Amino acid sequence: MARRLGFDARMIEGSCHCGAVRLEVASAPVELTSCACSICSRTGALLTYHPLKDVRITGATDVYMWGDRMIEFHRCKTCGCFTHWLPVDKDYDRMGVNARMMPREIWSGARVRYTPGPD
Ligand SMILES: [Zn+2]
Fold it and tell me: Which one of 13, 55, 75, 94 has the lowest number of neighbouring Cβ atoms within 10 Å?
């Protein structure tokens, strides 16, 4: 079970390498996903998944989409770090956050789940 902190408690914070994109999540990750889809395997992301309301992102990002264009992959405009993905359809209440943007001590003890992912 994720440790639920809520937005009124201390948030888990992270940022891209240059600090322009900042993120906050409501719970520390206990499980990370190493997805083997064609983009995640290239970025090396370790993902945590959240309802949209549980994550705050600030800062300018560029968006990359491909294939069926269902998911926006966001990366920092300045340093290029892949920070998160969002569904194009915002009624789909799930997003992915790259836990590698968080301090290492936040995620280093989490279990890593390997998934094949879509292409
Ligand atoms: Zn950056």
Answer: 94
Between the CA of 83 and the centroid of ligand 1 the distance, in Å, is 9
Q: What six digits make up the tokens of 84? A: 């998160």
Nearest to 59 by CA among 77, 72, 71, 73: 77
Task: Decide if pLDDT at 119 tops 80.
Answer: no
What pLDDT digit, counting tens, does each position of 30-70 carry? 999 999 988 988 999 999 999 999 999 999 999 999 989 99
CA of 1 to the centre of ligand 1 (A): 31
What CATH number labels 12-105? 2.170.150.70
User: Under a CB-based contact definition with an 8 Å cutoff, are residues 26 and 54 in contact?
Assistant: yes
What's the pLDDT tens digit per position in 3-40? 454 454 568 999 999 999 999 998 889 999 999 988 98
Q: Distance, CA 23 to ligand 1 centroid (Å)?
A: 11
3-class DSSP assignment, residue 28: strand
- Angle (CA) 86-46-30 rounded to 5° is 100
